[in-house]
Amino acid sequence: MSWYMGIDPGTSGAALVLPECPSVVTELNQDNSCRFCKCTEKDIIEWFHKVCDRCGGDVKAVIEKVTPYPVQWRGSIASFKLGVSYGFVRCCLLSNNIQIQPVRPQDWQSKMQCMSKGDKKVIRARAQELFPRCKFTVDTADALVIAEYCRRFFKGIGYDRVD
To answer: Would you say the C-alpha torsion 139, 74, 150, 45 has a positive or negative sign?
Structure first.
């Protein structure tokens, strides 16, 4: 069985893994999600190792692509922290031989019908539509929708429905 991971990098982001059949997901916990704001780097590394062990190495990932922002938009410290987080998570993926597909936020949001323009409530609402029985936080909503995008991307499924 294949597993599909969605990653929203950044200090308030998360990583989340979905099984091939996502309709069975009703709860997100430390087994299938990792909230970066609640973990140390060591915790994150251990979570990636546990996921790969549990999933038998058949994990594919989509990570939201981070690009540099002008200093006046985000600030140099925030941009630096985001870049460090992105690089750290990519390293975790690569060290576990996880296939990575970077994707721009505009691309996954467009395909998943949740163009947020910075409003996290839009993505949270879409996550709730896709997974009505699942309980999740604002921190994990992006990762959940990105994981579903990952599953559809690698399986070649149309983006307008959950299979």
So the answer is: negative
Query: Alpha helices, DSSP H only, in 3-155?
Result: 41-55, 71-74, 76-95, 105-111, 120-130, 138-155
Lowest mean pLDDT among 56-70, 82-96, 132-146, 148-162: 148-162
With tokens 């998943």, the residue in question is 112
Tell me the residue type at 157.
Answer: I
CA–CA gap between residue 114 and residue 25 (Å, rounded): 20
Q: Who contacts 159 (Cβ-Cβ below 8 Å, separation ≥6)?
A: 111, 112, 113, 149, 152
User: How deeply is 37 buried, as exposed, middle or buried, from its count of CB atoms within 10 A (0-12, 13-18, 19+)?
Assistant: exposed
- State how far the Cα of 8 lies from the Cα of 139, in Å rounded to an integer: 9
- Is the sign of the CA dihedral 153, 159, 162, 163 positive or negative? negative
69/79 Cα distance (integer angstroms): 7
pLDDT of 65 > 80? The answer is: yes
Report percent pLDDT > 70 for the chain: 88
Q: Are 159 and 126 in contact (CB under 8 A)?
A: no
